[in-house]
Structure formats: structure tokens, C-alpha cells
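Predict the 3D structure for this chain.
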Amino acid sequence: MKAMILAAGRGERLRPLTDTVPKPLLEVRGKPLITWHLEALARAGVHNVVINLSWLGEQIRATLGDGSRWGMTIAYSDEGPVALETGGGIHHALPLLGSAPFLLVNGDVYTDYDLARLWLRSGELAHLVLVGNPSHHPQGDFLLQDGLVSEIGEPRHTYAGIGIYDPELFAGCRPGRFPLLPLLRKAMAERRLGGEIHAGAWTDVGTAARLADLNRGTVPA
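Done. Predicted structure below.
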């Protein structure tokens, strides 16, 4: 199985840190955030990883190289100076990802979720990992009921930025910049969006304050 790490974002909420360093290369507990993901993927037996690039992307390429130090091969999906959003970025990378389901990890989360546990159930177009709602996102994103993800009902949980996706989810999409959520909503309507809840450590490293808390050990590791 292949995996994709989303690493093209500008990291506006982390400025000025991200003015000169791309968000995935910010250090968390002694090493770049994206390194934690590569190590987790290697432990899960993933040997082919695609990373999308935009803002300061050459720094990411120069730092990670071909992936051989993790026993994997890294391919880069360059989106140019303007990132294509999540949906457009994944669609742009599909030629590198192939026709089989692939793991997807947001480059700006920190977690102890075991990626080897993640698999696509029969009939699903995607399977999302959800977590408890953090204080900065108390309303959550989705309801999980009988293994299916929906936007209707309570209690809602937050999308962890981790999932497994079938390329079929992107059938009919055109190249360009577009969000992922409308595609997930279509899969929900077809009852083909599955999910699970992760009760372990998870942090959205989206602001300088949350990055500092993580490095101080004031949030779980």
C-alpha cells in the first residue's frame, strides 16, 4: 500500500515560524513533524510515500531526499506556487499513487495512531479516523454511527487528518484547486464513508501556541 502526506500548505496560523520554514519541517520533540509520520508509516510496512509540495517545498525535498533512510521511496507531487487544496492536491497526485487504496495523513498533526490498523472496509470509498473534539474545535466535524460517517446528529467528533481513500472517490474530478469535503459528502450520501474513533494522543499542530504546548509536554505524546 502507498501513502500520501499532505505537506503543501502555507501554515498561515503558524507565522512567522512558517515564513522561512515549511510547516512539516517545524520541530516537534527534537525532530521535524513530518519525520514522525515517515517513521509511523515505516513501522506500518509502507514503502512508497507521496508528498505534495508548494510553499517552500524545495526545503522538504532537500531535507527528506529519496526516503531511503526510512527504508522507503518518496515521490514528490509539486503543485507549484499556489497549493491546490486538499481535494485538488490529492487528485493531482493520483498518477503517483496508482489505482489501489492509499493511506492519507495530514502533515500538520501529531499522533500515536497505529497506521497499520487502518484498512478500507468492503464498499467504502474512504475510511476516516476521528478523535475527540479539541478545545479549539468544540463543535466537531462528523457523527459516527454503526461504522458510517455522517454530518447529521450528535455526538460529533473531529476528523483527525488520517484516513484511507479509494481513488474512485475522485472519479470525474477535473484538475485544479478544490476542497475534499464535497467528495466526502457525496460518499456519505451513498453510505460509503466509514470511520473509527481514536482515543489516544492527537494534536493539530496548527498554531505556534499548540506547537509550544506539544514541545513542552503539556499535551499527551
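The mean pLDDT is 94.
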